[in-house]
Amino acid sequence: MDNRKKYRDKTRVDSACRVILDYILPGDVVNQFGDYESWQFWYAIGTWGIRKYQKKLFGEESNWKDDHTMLFLDEEHTLSVEPPKAILKPLKKYCLSNLSIYRLREMELKSEHIAKLKEAAEQIKGSDYDYGQLLDILINGIMGYEHQRRLSFFDFGRTRKVCSVGVRAAFERLYKTMINPDGEPPNKWLFDKMNPDKWPEEKIKNFKGTDVEATAPAHFANSDFFRSEFELIARFSGGEKISL
Predict the structure, then answer these.
(1) Over the stretch 82-118, which tens digit does the pLDDT of each residue have?
(2) Distances (CA, A) of 142 to 49, 136, 137, 154, 232
(3) Taking the alpha carbons of 49, 55, 60, 61 in that order, is the dihedral positive or negative?
(4) What's the number of domains the chain is made of?
(5) 19, 96 contact by CB (below 8 A)
(6) Domain CATH for 139
(7) CA 191 – CA 227 distance, rounded (Å)
(8) Residue ranges making up the domain that contains 135
């Protein structure tokens, strides 16, 4: 059954939303995989690029298959940077997909923090999806620049983003404006320190943090490679919770 047909089943959608809402909280990161139709070749191309980069970066035993990242704000608003533009969409539009929920471990997000994330999401909403940035991430990874985006061949400017970069940008804005406003540049929050149990010493020695523009869905799914910034809360498929 294609996505359009299964989402017409209101009973199934309502049931899925109820189950997911028992687990998800505002500020949670939602990762998806494979949520597109076979004829949507542009998604297939993007998925191939993301997975190739992630598998190379984190290894075959990691969670490298996630191909889309979103930021849950409330039942009616989830930030999703997707082709052709970034949108805020309700849970009922993606509740039947293959999804994983990740929650920030370092602090409890309070109402004022969620308000700041919503403010950032509103600013990102309407941004064009950046296929060029996706290609840059892949090319930089192939050339060995796995954590920094040193080379830019297809940069179309600040008004374009890919999914995980948009979510990372919202968190970094929260950090810089509310959590650590007096920090020295580059003043980054997430994925800035490597876990020595996961990386060889040579990589740790040369690591200077993960650029916002180099952030992929697998960064949220494999944060134990860094400071374990996020924890897995639950996984769902077809609106049903599956075993972790």
Answers:
(1) 888 889 999 999 999 999 999 999 899 999 999 999 9
(2) 11, 10, 9, 15, 29
(3) negative
(4) 1
(5) no
(6) 3.90.1720.10
(7) 7
(8) 3-242
